[in-house]
Amino acid sequence: MASGVASDPGLVEAWLEAEPEWRLARVFLAQAREPRMEAWCAFEHALRETVWRVRDARVAQAKLGWWLEDIGQARAGAAQHPLLQRLGSLDALDVLDRGGAEGILRGAAHAAAMESPADMESMLAAFVALEQPLAQARARLAGTAVAEVEIVRGLAAARVLCECRHWARFALPERARLPLALLARVGKGRDAALAQGPLLAAALADALLPHIEAALAAGSPSALDTATLLIGRSLAARRPRVAHWRLAFALWRLARHALRA
Q: What is the pLDDT of residue 5?
């Protein structure tokens, strides 16, 4: 089974379809093409799909419980999900040991439970709850130092902007993910959020970009985390075409720096 799992290119395609900037990042960053990291990033994407894009929060929590159970089965070589099978075939499941899986799923459950955050900080805290244990697992997998709190906050801010691209799911009134203070500032209610995507996404970008810039200035020990921050900064830009070329140049510089390190 391991050889079949390892050869399935569809395991990462959903991730790359949802986050096409990583196709560009993978041109420059060899680590993003490394099989273990590639499979891990695809696993992260599948987990975030459960947290942020399931319409019913109760269903999301139930699915997270299933993920935790399947991780336990994966440790015994009996995973049901092909991504966990893939990680097992690559001897990459050790990042989920020593409480790693429980920390990630606990953070995911906290994030999925977010409802009507009062302000931007409350919303960001829910994203940090998931992104922090994921960043710790990536560091273990890559053998790098764990990201500092300021960098994790930048990663969480970048993740918010990434989720905003899927506005029809992110801004569902029944999940109430948008900060009430933001809605009040732009004079919109929750029920109007779906129709006000560009306005609200721009307001989110303005509020979150300083966190991304601060994290970039702090400097991450992980090239992949830096790439995430650069992608987040590009998503906050007002001119997508210019942002694309700026991102390509920044990723090229990042790759050159990684080679010299």
A: 43
